[in-house]
Each structure stands twice: as structure tokens, then as C-alpha cells.
UniProtKB/TrEMBL annotation:
The keyword Oxidoreductase applies. This is Prolyl 4-hydroxylase subunit alpha-3. Residues 190-210 are annotated as: Disordered. PANTHER family: PROLYL 4-HYDROXYLASE ALPHA SUBUNIT, TRANSMEMBRANE PROLYL 4-HYDROXYLASE. It comes from Achaetomium macrosporum. Residues 72-294 form the Prolyl 4-hydroxylase alpha subunit domain. InterPro entries: P4HA-like, Pro_4_hyd_alph, Pro_4_hyd_alph_FE2OG_OXY. The keyword Nucleus does not apply. GO terms for cellular component: endoplasmic reticulum. Its cofactor is L-ascorbate.
Length: 298
């Protein structure tokens, strides 16, 4: 009998994990509610006839996408914005800036809290150029059903400006929420004003990176173009520690990071790895563009 048990032990070990998973209770599925009424003031709703593009023609997309993480999905996008688009955003946002606020109670109230969020925000009008940026962000996500782009917001951070660690999603109530986020960099100097050109001079930006403390870093030194690395990581031997926990994306005007906020398993759970911050600006001015996608959680 003892011999039979010894022979059976490897079989039990081989199948133990699937068996445990089979008999373990599954995570509770989200209790879905009917779609809330869409707020046309805050969402960039498409026209009823989405095939009618006679009003504006968008340039071809020339960006390059690198997969940084698969769970959560995090994409690094080179050349998401053209220089002309960045100049346009700087121009239209200049007269619209207001102090940024912090949202409380699942979006019910807001307050001005510089210790948490110290920046200026501009809700930009939907010009033809802005609509092309919206279309680009929508297409990158595969034109998902019941997902809409929120109105675009330009954020300006002067010296000392920052945004403390936070989630972009506050709740997945009823199966609806902010499902995806873009952080797009528009400018990185104190010449970040209408009409400025690349290399105009001015005080160059120091600090201001976007930090994800729970996201795994990458072991390939080629990522050091886009993320902060130590000198040893940038050396010819590559990064020493392989995957590390925590990453800071550099401010590179025109480039962007996109990430998914919720797990696609029907539970409505958010990824803890999307906990992030806009680190303090030490010198210069940082201008960023927030593109958020709101809709049905998968």
C-alpha cells in the first residue's frame, strides 16, 4: 500500500494546482447596472454618422508602440503627437488654465488641494486637431463597444508642481468606469507657450516623471531611453537586476504611455499596479495631456 501511495504522489503534485483552482470559489463577478446617461459636456461623443469625415481630415498615424507590460496592459507610444499638434494644444489651452482639483466620493465632490495636486488644467475645445487626437486614441483601443473618450485636458506643472500617488479609477460601480488612461507629454521647458519651437532654449525640465511604484521594471537597457535608469543599468552590460519593481517614465514631448485600469475577468477589480504619481517638477515647466476612456468594464 505504501508503494502505491509513493507512486501516486507525483501524480497528485502534478494535478494539484488545477484541482485546487477548480474547487476554489471564483472571484465574485461584477453586478452590472444599466448604462448611466452620458454626459455630453465631459465626453467626446462621436457624431451620429461616424463615417462622415467631411468636416476634418486627420493626418496618417506615424507612431510606434512598445509593449511594456501585459498584465496590466501598458503601452509606450513614440511620436503619439506631432509637433504641430503639440503647438496647437499649447495655444488653445493658454487662456483656459484653472487650478486643478481633487475628486472625492466617487466623483460627487471636488476640492482644491495643492498638497495632493499642484497644477493647472485646461479643458480644451474640440477643434479639428483635437478631434484627430481623440480619433487616434479611440482607434488605438480598437473602437471598443460602449467606451468613449473623455474631453481632453491639458495639464501644466510649474516648479514644485506634482500629483501625489493615485488611481485614475475611483470605482467600477455598476460595471462602468474609467477603463483606460493616456499620459501624453506636450512640452518640457519654460518656453512651453504658444509659438514656441523645439530648441528655443529656456530652463529645461528637471523632475516631473510619471512613477508607477508597483509596476515591474524592464531588464533591457534599451528601455533607458524612456524610463529612468541608474548608470549601471545604462552601461554596456545592460540592467543588472533584471525586472525590478517600480518604474519612472521620463518626460519626452510627443510620446505617451497608455494603460488599462481594470482586469478583464468580469470582476470589476482594478489593477494595483496602476497606482501612479506625477513626480515634483524641480526646474522648468511640464505640460501634459490626459486622455481618459470611460465606459463598460470588461
Amino acid at each position: 500500500m505504501f508503494t502505491y501511495l509513493l507512486a501516486l504522489l507525483p501524480v497528485l503534485l502534478y494535478f494539484s494546482n488545477p484541482i485546487v483552482q477548480f474547487f476554489s470559489p471564483s472571484p465574485p463577478q461584477i453586478r452590472r447596472l444599466p448604462r448611466p446617461q452620458l454626459n455630453e459636456d465631459l465626453l467626446a461623443l462621436e457624431a451620429a454618422n461616424t463615417t462622415d469625415i467631411s468636416k476634418y481630415t486627420c493626418p496618417p498615424n506615424t507612431y510606434r508602440v512598445h509593449i511594456f507590460s501585459r498584465a496590466p496592459l501598458v503601452l509606450y507610444i513614440e511620436n503619439f503627437l506631432a509637433l504641430s499638434e503639440r503647438s496647437h494644444l499649447l495655444e488653445i489651452s493658454e487662456p483656459l488654465y484653472q487650478p486643478s482639483t481633487v475628486t472625492h466620493n466617487a466623483g460627487e465632490t471636488t476640492s482644491h488641494a495643492p498638497s495632493i495636486r499642484d497644477s493647472e488644467v485646461a479643458l480644451v475645445p474640440r477643434t479639428d486637431t483635437v478631434r484627430c487626437i481623440e480619433d487616434r486614441a479611440r482607434a488605438l483601443q480598437g473602437w471598443r463597444d460602449e467606451v468613449w473618450i473623455e474631453r481632453l485636458r491639458v495639464q501644466r506643472y510649474r516648479a514644485g508642481g506634482h500629483y501625489a500617488h493615485h488611481f485614475d479609477w475611483s470605482t467600477g460601480r455598476g460595471g462602468w468606469g474609467r477603463v483606460g488612461s493616456f499620459m501624453v507629454w506636450v512640452a518640457d521647458s519654460d518656453t512651453a507657450s504658444p509659438g514656441s519651437e523645439e530648441g528655443d532654449g529656456g530652463e529645461r525640465l528637471e523632475g516631473g516623471g510619471t512613477e508607477f511604484p508597483y509596476l515591474k521594471g524592464k531588464g533591457d537597457r534599451r528601455w533607458c531611453r524612456f524610463v529612468e535608469c541608474s548608470q549601471s543599468q545604462e552601461g554596456e552590460e545592460g540592467m543588472e537586476d533584471g525586472e525590478r519593481k517600480g518604474v519612472v517614465f521620463k518626460v519626452v514631448p510627443g510620446n505617451a504611455v497608455y494603460w488599462e485600469n481594470f482586469m478583464a475577468d468580469g470582476t470589476g477589480r482594478g489593477y494595483e499596479e496602476t497606482w501612479h504619481a506625477g513626480l515634483p517638477v524641480k526646474k522648468g515647466v511640464k505640460v501634459g495631456l490626459n486622455i481618459w476612456s470611460w465606459g463598460r468594464i470588461e
